[in-house]
Amino acid sequence: MSERRPPRSSAHELERYAGLFASRTRVMRSSAMRDLMAVTVRPEVISLAGGLPDTSTFDPALFKELMERIPSAAALQYGPSEGLLGVREAIVSVMAAEHMAVDPDEVIVTTGGQQAIDLVTKTLVDPRDVVIAEAPTYPGAVPTFCAYEADVIQIDVDSDGMRIDALEETLAALDAAGRRPKFIYTIPNFQNPAGVTMSLERRRRLVAIARERELIVLEDNPYGMLRYEGDELPTLRSLEAPGPTDENDFVIYTGTMSKILSPGVRVGWLVAPRPLLAKLILGKQSTDLCSSTLAQHFVAEYFASGDWQPYVASLCELYHRRRDVILDALAENLPAAATWTRPQGGLFIWVTLPDFIGTTDLLARALAENVAFVPGEAAYADGRGQHAMRLNFSSSADDDIREGVRRIGKIVAEQVALYDTLTGRSRGGPAAAGGERSAGADAPAAPEAALAAEPPGGERLASVLHLPRRGALGGQRSREA
Ligand SMILES: Cc1ncc(COP(=O)(O)O)c(C=O)c1O
Fold first, then answer.
1. What is the pTM of this model?
2. Position in ligand 1 atom list of the atom nearest CA 114
3. Do 150 and 281 lie in a common domain?
4. What's the CA-to-centroid distance between 191 and ligand 1, angstroms?
5. Cβ distance 308 to 62 under 8 Å?
6. How far is the CA of 222 from the centre of ligand 1 (A)?
């Protein structure tokens, strides 16, 4: 029998491997949502954290029927790196529904939209290259840009999406420094995490800038079809290439089945200017050869089985109602100093709290109350976002949304009361009577507006109100009625 080795300390373990790690691992960041998933799968936790669609709405009988129709030998085989033709044709029909004319051979099927972001970054970005993103941006994109050692510059959004005036200033400053961004990453519709939508005027201006400066724009559009209010706006891709014969030179478009069908199938896509396609495919081959053939057959069967748009319409109806539920709950439970966005579609609301409350620390308190959100810092590469949080309203039942927001309201109120006691000032105030305090046109322009403001006197009370970190909470969890 072999002798058991004595247990080693984790510090020793890390030291042992330290010399092996590639230098890029120093700047790798974990994904806030993936970290949270371990906690939020617990049934007692109300999760307003994930970006999950409500998959319980998909008809189980249809699911079974589709699975039975999948041709087993082909589905169990490798497939082409660019994806099955049936899936690329389905993608063409989804894009046509958003008024984009593309050819199946311009489409690369990816393993979720996440892989599309990864492939574009892998293909275009060398260490220290500039990538421009929105502030805040999709929390899942931040670890990707960091993993390829990009210098991420984030441009504030307001209720009309990315501030193009600020973008132009940044581009001019980069020009002066002899730097040129590799691409501009934007989520024009119901942005993750802020829920805001880029105005038509800004879309036009952004496409014009891309053309004038010959800059690539990566347009990420997982939520465009989930509009439940307001008028549809053209995608950047359709503004750049309105007709089937128009050349698309500067927009790389990415979409996903995750929010209109299922994130479990992990099927997304890229449509890129033709000269980029071959390199993007090489990038994909070295990552995974091809996306799951089994999952692609499921998607192809689903789209071949008939009309998919009524299902998307039913999701819109459901999320519309849940958005209204969360807006009412926020107005009822958050203090007057808090603001939030009012999305016209999609899955997220961005809440900005008074500037003495740090949401990363607040999350530890929230988890003790069995409720979760994504702290704002996850949406920044540079440590901003400390006073903001992303809330999801698509994947919880109405009563859970109300209860989750009530719990968040309670812990925020505790922080406000503590601040008032410590400072003798009143910053939070009681909840406003009715009506949301949107960071919309009449409210603070940017969801991040509060971030710019230091507490009076310049002192930062976040450290005074420092809360125990998650690891220190053992056994404290309680279940509320
Ligand atoms: C803006 C954005 N891009 C990409 C993704 C990744 O989607 P997928 O599940 O298709 O990988 C998400 C997922 O939430 C997202 O919100």
1. 0.87
2. 11
3. yes
4. 11
5. no
6. 6
Ligand 1-lining residues (CB < 6 angstroms): 51, 112-114, 138, 140, 187, 192, 220, 222, 256, 258, 263, 268
Cβ neighbours of 118 (radius 10 Å):
23
Instruction: Tell whether 353 is covered by a domain.
Output: yes
Same domain (yes/no): 336, 228:
no
Any domain includes 111: yes
Q: What is the pLDDT of residues 316-362, one digit of tens each?
A: 999 999 999 999 999 999 999 999 999 999 999 999 999 999 999 99
Residue 187 alpha carbon, nearest atom of ligand 1:
1
Tell me, yes or no, whether 8 lies in a domain. no
Q: Distance, CA 114 to ligand 1 centroid (Å)? A: 6
Ligand 1 closest atom vs CA 111: 11
Q: Which domain holds residue 476?
A: 27-55+312-480
Do 228 and 100 belong together in one domain?
A: yes
Same domain, 266 and 345: no
Answer whether residue 15 is part of any domain: no
300 and 404 in a common domain: no
Band of pLDDT at residue 444, cut at 50, 70 and 90: very low
